[in-house]
Amino acid sequence: MKVISFINMKGGVAKTTLAVNVADCLVRRKHASVLCVDVDPQFNATQCLMTPDAYVDHRQQNGCTIVDVFDRQSRTRVGVVEGTTQTEPRTLESITPVRIKDRFDLLPGSLDLYRLEMAPGQGRENRLRLYLETVQDDYDYVIIDTPPTPSVWMTSALIASDHYVIPVRPDPISLTGIDLLRSIVREMAENFGLSTKCAGVVLTVVEQNTRVFDNAKENLRSNDFWKEKLFEKFLVKRTQVARQQLDQILILDGDNSEVKLGLAQITEELLNRIETHDE
Ligand SMILES: Nc1ncnc2c1ncn2[C@@H]1O[C@H](COP(=O)(O)OP(=O)(O)OP(=O)(O)O)[C@@H](O)[C@H]1O
Ligand SMILES: [Mg+2]
């Protein structure tokens, strides 16, 4: 099982779009068995994969979310009929993801992560890694979508990951963010003894034949560290990708052959880069 996170502290760079669609592409084009984990309190990956009704049903039936991975507090509930009862947190082994389709599971996100972040709790950073150890034999790949803020959730994703991918928009301001990200990951690596490796930088929401896109490629190719990391393939900008997202229409379900091909090539390149790391 390989664990891959999509990370960038810059918001809106298509982390979620790439995470859910690469996961879907691994399932459909590579016949892989994939778990997608949504560690972003905004839970956009979940919104891309579950209808609002399905999510509400899931929560009403006390279905598992990412909060179960991090929350270890027992709770006291006072009910009219049953009186005072104590609910213990779920064990990691009993956390069950949602089946989205054949070979594609999701551990849904939850807004409750915001609340949890305010509560005290030591050692949360390691919980996701420990949870993923319990599903080690169930999946070929785990794809983690992360929030755009340095937080315990982002750290936990990096600790749990074998590799991380940096999606970035090709504008100058977004590009400056990747050096900052690199230094933060380096610092985390020292603090937590991370073994995660950068699988590369994917340019996203790209408008081809523009000066900004050419400059972005030039900029990265002239940098000693990033030139090796830059994916040859990129995600082109198409408004229909954004439009269809909230109707749970994934890129491979759409009819834009250019975006579909781009996604398949990015996924292929990702697998090649990961294999090279592992040699
Ligand atoms: N290829 C594309 N073409 C056009 N719009 C896109 C494309 N990919 C993503 N978008 C849109 O860009 C916006 C940001 O994408 P997304 O939510 O995936 O980014 P993110 O990095 O996960 O954001 P956040 O930091 O808030 O988590 C969304 O509205 C999304 O629909
Ligand atoms: Mg996102």
Note down, in words, how this protein is organized.
This protein has 279 residues and is of the alpha/beta class. The chain has a single domain, classed as Rossmann fold (3-Layer(aba) Sandwich), CATH 3.40.50.300. Helix content is 43%, strand content 16%. The chain is built from 11 helices and 9 strands. The protein has a 7-stranded mixed β-sheet with strand order 5-6-2-7-1-8-9, with helices on both faces. A two-stranded antiparallel ribbon has the order 3-4. A hairpin with a 3-residue loop joins β3 (75-79) and β4 (83-87). α1 (15-30) packs across α11 (257-278) and α6 (127-134) packs across α7. The radius of gyration is 19 Å and the shape is globular. The model has no long low-confidence stretch (mean pLDDT 93). The protein binds adenosine-5'-triphosphate (ATP) and magnesium ion.
What structural keywords apply?
single chain; 279 residues; alpha/beta; Rossmann fold; 7-stranded mixed β-sheet; two-stranded antiparallel ribbon; 9 strands; 43% helix; binds adenosine-5'-triphosphate; binds magnesium ion
Distance between the termini: 16 Å
**Which regions contain 5 or more consecutive residues with pLDDT less than 50?**
none
Number of domains: 1
Major sheet description: 7 strands, mixed
The total count of strands amounts to: 9
Distinct small-molecule ligands in the complex: adenosine-5'-triphosphate, magnesium ion
SSE order in H/E notation? Answer: EHEHHHEEEEHHEHEHEHHH
SSE-based structural type: alpha/beta
Strand order of the largest sheet: 5-6-2-7-1-8-9
CATH H-tier superfamily = P-loop containing nucleotide triphosphate hydrolases
Strand content: 15-25%
Helix fraction, binned, reads: 40-55%
Query: In terms of quaternary structure, what is this?
Result: single chain
CATH topology: Rossmann fold
Mean pLDDT: 93
The count of helical stretches stands at 11
- Second-tier CATH architecture: 3-Layer(aba) Sandwich
Which CATH class is shown? Alpha Beta
